[in-house]
Specification:
The model has no long low-confidence stretch (mean pLDDT about 95). The chain has a single domain, classed as Beta-grasp domain (Ubiquitin-like (UB roll)). Strand 1 and strand 2 form a beta hairpin. The protein is about 20% helix and about 20% strand. A five-stranded mixed sheet has the order 2-1-5-3-4. It has three helices and five strands; from the N terminus they run E-E-H-E-H-H-E-E. By secondary structure, the chain is of the alpha+beta class. The chain binds FE2/S2 (inorganic) cluster. The site of FE2/S2 (inorganic) cluster (FES) has 14 residues, from loops. Keywords: 2Fe-2S, Iron, Iron-sulfur, Metal-binding. It comes from Mesorhizobium plurifarium. It holds the Pfam family Fer2.
Length: about 110
């Protein structure tokens, strides 16, 4: 099991334990994490699953691919820590991740 912490836009913290399979967006939707919309179903086509990851995790996981970076570049909430949750695989390297959900997706 790996531990994934989401900080919802209100500041509410959700700590989830999950087997290392699937992706962060589907984990968030399955558990009703506020602020993650996932409108395209995880095809990197909507940008409504943005999260801001903690620095330690960003160093442990592969960088955004071109299609993810292109989609993120359209966001008003882009930061150096921005990633699309649908593109983040739930691997053992993700254990302990803290993902802050922006106030608004888009
Ligand atoms: S769910 Fe659409 S880009 Fe992630």
């Amino acid at each position: 099991m790996i531990k994934v912490t989401f900080i919802e836009p209100t500041g509410n913290t959700r700590i989830l334990e999950t087997p290392p399979s699937g992706d962060m967006m589907h984990l968030a939707l399955a558990n009703g994490v506020a602020g993650i919309l996932g409108e395209c179903g995880g095809t990197c086509g909507c940008g409504t699953c943005q999260v801001h990851l903690d620095e330690q995790t960003l160093k442990r996981i592969p960088p955004a691919a071109d299609d993810e970076a292109d989609m993120l570049s359209l966001s008003d909430y882009l930061t150096p820590a921005s990633r699309l949750a649908c593109q983040i695989k739930l691997t053992p390297e993700l254990d302990g991740v803290i993902a802050k959900v922006p106030e608004v997706q888009g």
